[in-house]
Specification:
Radius of gyration: 14 Å
Shape: globular
Largest sheet: none
Number of domains: 1
Structural class: mainly alpha
Number of helices: 5
Distance between the termini: 12 Å
Number of strands: 0
Strand content: under 5%
Helix content: 40-55%
Length: 126
C-alpha cells in the first residue's frame, strides 16, 4: 500500500468523499484543496476550493499536494518532522474525533498500529 495514497484516502474519507451530499464529493476534491493560483486559472467554489472535472483529477491533485506538504516543499510551512496533527490542521481538520478517525483509517490501511497523531510526516515518505 502506498502510504501517500493512504493519507489521501483517510483525509478524503474524513471529508466525506463517499457521501454525495458532502462538499468533497460535489467538488470531486477529496482534500478540499484551495486554489492559490491567479484568479481564473482554476475553477473554484465560493470558498476558494478547487472544483475538478472528475474524482481522478481531484485525487491526482491531492496526491501531488500532500507529497509537497509532507516533504516540506510547500508554502504551508510543514516539514518532514511535522506531525499528522500539523498536516490535518493545514487541511482544516482540527476536531479530535475526526483526527482519531483519520489515524484509525491509516492504522488499518497500512497495517501499522503504531501510527498516532504525533507520527512524523517523514513516515509517509519512505
Amino acid at each position: 500500500m502506498n502510504k501517500i495514497e493512504a493519507l489521501v484516502d483517510a483525509i478524503g474519507k474524513a471529508n466525506g468523499i463517499g457521501d454525495p451530499e458532502a462538499d468533497a464529493y460535489r467538488l470531486r476534491n477529496p482534500l478540499l484543496i484551495r486554489s492559490f493560483a491567479r484568479p481564473g486559472k482554476h475553477e473554484t467554489d465560493e470558498k476558494g476550493r478547487r472544483v475538478f472535472s472528475s474524482l481522478l483529477s481531484g485525487y491526482k491533485a491531492g496526491l501531488f499536494d500532500i507529497e509537497l506538504k509532507i516533504t516540506g516543499k510547500s508554502r504551508a510551512g510543514l516539514q518532514p518532522t511535522s506531525t499528522i496533527t500539523n498536516l490535518l490542521g493545514v487541511y482544516g481538520i482540527k476536531e479530535p474525533s475526526i483526527m482519531g478517525s483519520v489515524v484509525a483509517f491509516l492504522r488499518k490501511a497500512l497495517a501499522d498500529p503504531s501510527i498516532t497523531i504525533a507520527t512524523p510526516l517523514e513516515y509517509f515518505v519512505s
